[in-house]
C-alpha cells in the first residue's frame, strides 16, 4: 500500500525512464527475431538432417525472442499509466498542502490527514469560523484520501499487469536460450589471450553465443578474440541504449536553459561532444556499402572520459588486407569522424592499387590519447595503450577466416609512439608497421621492435611537417632518420610556411592523389612504397 509519505517522495519520471528502457529492449528482441529470420533464409539451399535440425533450432529460438518481445511490450504502458496516476495524485496533494500552509490554521499529519489547529486563549475566531476550519480540514483530508486511493488502485493495476508479463507467464523461463545454455559472467575468459578467447567462443553452441551477446554484450563487444560480426552485434545493442540516453539528457539540459559557466552548461557541452562522435559512428554503421567502402562493424566504444571508438570499415575477419590506423594527439570519440574519413581514403587508394583484393580499414581510437602538445611529450599514454593495441592485433589474427591476411598497422603522430611502445613491451603481430609524421617511437633502432622476422617497418614524414622539429630526448630517434633502420618512403613536401615547417603538413598524408596516400595504399595491399 502506497503511504502519504511515499506518494510525496515518488518520482514519476523514473517510471517513464523504465518504460523507455523496456520499450528499447522489446525493439531489440524484435530486431533479433528479424536477424534470425534472415539467417534462416540463407539456409534455403541446404538440405539434409543437419539442415532440418538447424532450421528447427532457429525457429525455436525465434519463437522465444518473438514471445519475449510481445510480453515485454506490455510493460511500458503499465509503467506509464502508473506514472500518470502518481503525477495527478501529487498535484492534488501539493494543492492541499499549499491550501493548508496559506491558511495558518490547519496542519497536515504524517498519515495525510488534515486537522484544524485548536485555538488558544488568544483565539478571537467565532464558532462559525472555527467550524469552517474543521470542515475545510475534513474536505482536504478527503482529497488526500481520494488521491491515495487512486494511486493505490493504479499501483495494484500495474502490479497485476507486470505479473502477466513475467517470463513464467509467457512460458519462457530459460526457454529463449534453453536451460544449461546460459553463459554466466564467470564463464567469460576476460583475461585470456585472444587465441584462447576464440577457442572458448567456438566451443559455445549458437544458443550460448546468443546468450553471451545479449546478456553480457558490454564484455563480449570489447573482447579480443570474438569475431567481428559478433562484437558488432553486441556493441550495437549497447550503442543504441547509450545514444538514446545521451540524447534524452541533452534535451533535458537544453530545456533547462542553463546559464553560461554553470555545471549544467558544462555537462551540456560534454554531451554535445559525445554525441558528435556517436553521430559519426552511427552514420558510418548505417551507410550503404559500396565497392570500395564496405559495411562497417563496431568493434568497441566508450563514452567515458574522452571517449573511445574502434570501427572497422569492412570485415577484418574475411578481408585479404587489414589496416589499423592509430591517431595521435587530440584524438578522442568526438573527433572520430575525421579518422573515419581517413579510413575511406585508405580504402579508396588500396582499391585503386589492387582492384582484385578485399580490404578492411580499422579506425582504432582505442586509447586515452594526450589532448595537447604538453601531454604529448610524455610516454605514459603510449605505455598505457601498448597492451590493448597488441591484444587487438592478436585478436585480428585469431578471428581471421581462411588464409592469413596482410595486416598493416599505421601510427600517425603520437599514434606512432603508441605503435612503437606496443612493439617493445611484447610481440606485435603485424606484417607491416608504418610510422608516419612520427615524433619518435620510444626506440633508437628498428632492432628494438619485437615484430615477426619477416615484418617490414616503414617510415615517412613530409619535408615541411612541423613534427620534424621534435627534439630527440622526447621520444627518442625519429624513424625517418637513416640510423633508425626503417625503410623510408616519400611522404611528399607538405604545405610550407614562412619558416619552412607547418602544422598543415602534419595532416595532409591522406589528401586525395597525394604521394603519401599512394604509398600508404601500396603498403596496405602488400606492395612496396616509392
From TrEMBL:
UniProt xrefs under Gene3D superfamilies: alpha/beta hydrolase (3.40.50.1820), PPE superfamily (1.20.1260.20)
Occurrences of domain DUF1023 (ranges): 305-470
Pfam families listed in its UniProt record: Abhydrolase_8 (PF06259)
InterPro entries named in the record: AB_hydrolase_fold (IPR029058), DUF1023 (IPR010427), PPE_sf (IPR038332)
Residues of the signal peptide: none
Protein origin, superkingdom: Bacteria
Protein's name according to its UniProt entry: DUF1023 domain-containing protein
Species the sequence originates in: Prauserella halophila
